[in-house]
Design goal:
This protein is α+β, with helices and mostly antiparallel strands. About 30% of the residues lie in helices and about 35% in strands. It has one domain. Strands 1, 2, 3, 4, 5, 6 and 7 form a 7-stranded antiparallel sheet that branches. Strand 3 and strand 4 form a beta hairpin.
């Protein structure tokens, strides 16, 4: 859900509550580098905090918790992001990202003769998307306009809303595949992938050094 309170009937959900876009990885990776790469991607695609309008994770990180068990920890993180729909002042896009790390701890590996300090553990990332119909707020604030809200949505905005849902779904799909690419997971892409400015710092065991 968006950071600010938005009536549920003004939101269009891109995924079912129990079926978000998901990425799961369990092996060796650098958590800090993953954070950096993910923040860079979101910044490049125009995602910011809904209030501070900042691409810095210190604003769109709405929740962080750690629970330590010996040398490892369980981590939960919530990011809440927003941006205006391209070419429209009447729609707003939202992405919710929920991280859950299990048994996350320190690790060391040898690559090209050099010792690298990194992390090992399991991370699951769930991505939800929604669209706010900003124009409905204008209708609700005007009694006369409120009487034609349903008609206006069905006749004027129906096609545009359908295209916007498709657009946000595709962007989340690209984000999901960027994350899979970073973790070196198998992907089936209908498009050519751009090279990332932040090379992967994940070392899955099934891939040779």
């Amino acid at each position: 859900m968006p950071t600010k309170k938005v009536p549920s009937d003004r939101l269009i959900q891109i995924f079912d509550t129990f079926s978000p876009a998901t990425v799961k990885y369990k092996d060796i990776f650098d958590m800090k580098e993953f954070y950096t790469a993910l923040k860079f991607w979101l910044h490049e695609y125009g995602w910011t905090d809904d209030f501070k309008n900042s691409p810095s994770n210190e604003w769109f990180e709405k929740y962080y918790s750690e629970r330590h068990t010996g040398s490892v920890k369980e981590v939960r993180i919530w990011w809440r992001l927003a941006k205006q729909a391209p070419g429209s002042t009447k729609l707003k896009y939202y992405i919710d990202m929920n991280f859950h790390c299990i048994a996350l701890g320190s690790a060391e590996i040898i690559r090209d003769g050099q010792k690298i300090k990194t992390n090992k553990g399991e991370v699951e990332l769930k991505i939800f998307g929604s669209i706010e119909k900003l124009y409905e707020k204008e209708f609700e604030e005007d009694k006369l306009l409120g009487m034609i809200k349903s008609f206006f949505t069905k006749r004027i905005y129906d096609g545009y809303l359908s295209e916007s849902k498709k657009e946000l779904y595709q962007e989340i799909y690209v984000l999901q595949n960027f994350i899979k690419q970073w973790f070196k997971l198998k992907r089936y892409l209908p498009y050519e992938e751009a090279k990332s400015f932040h090379p992967s710092q994940a070392w899955p065991s099934h891939l040779k050094s």
